[in-house]
Amino acid sequence: MIGEVTEFFYTLSASTYPPHDQRYRFYRENGGTFFYQEKREGDQWPLGEEDVTVSGTRELTEAEWSAFFDLIRDGTVKKREEHLEDGDAGPWLYLYWKGDRSEWQEYSFPSRKALSAFEDFCAALAERD
Question: Binning pLDDT at 50, 70 and 90, where does residue 84 land?
């Protein structure tokens, strides 16, 4: 299934003071695999484009793409549902693959430990930018 994954989005958002967003995106494009990261920080809510403090894209090695896939392999995917009532800060996770006919697919890690390992992996990739 690793060859079927086309995009994976992770977003963590906090409206507490100071508000901040952290976004990661893994994706395939033109035969390559990429990692994008963006951090927004500011003193008002909601944060906008002008609040981006860090962003960058880097091409992943085959080993890095494989490591990413290993981190998401055992998660659960279901059709997205609205979660407007809980006001949760996330993380919000969405996974897409070739031939996917749904507008959004919501992803969840099998455990808090698996989510932490994924976050650590993303932080390490972001540090390399």
Answer: low
Task: Tell me the CB-side half-sphere exposure of residue 67, using CA atoms within 13 A.
Answer: 15
pLDDT in tens, 13-37: 877 777 778 899 999 999 999 999 9
Give me the count of residues in the chain. Answer: 129
Task: Decide if 24 contacts 55 (C-beta within 8 A).
Answer: no
The residue behind tokens 């609205």 is: 82
Integer Cα distance of 66 and 68 in angstroms: 5
Find where tokens 């080993």 sit.
Answer: 63
Q: H-helix or E-strand containing 79?
A: strand 76-79
Above 60 in pLDDT, residue 119?
A: yes
Q: Could you check whether the bond before residue 91 is cis, i.e. omega within 30 degrees of 0? A: yes
d(CA 37, CA 58) in angstroms, rounded, equals 9
Distance of CA 93 to the CA centre of its chain: 6
Model-level pTM?
0.78
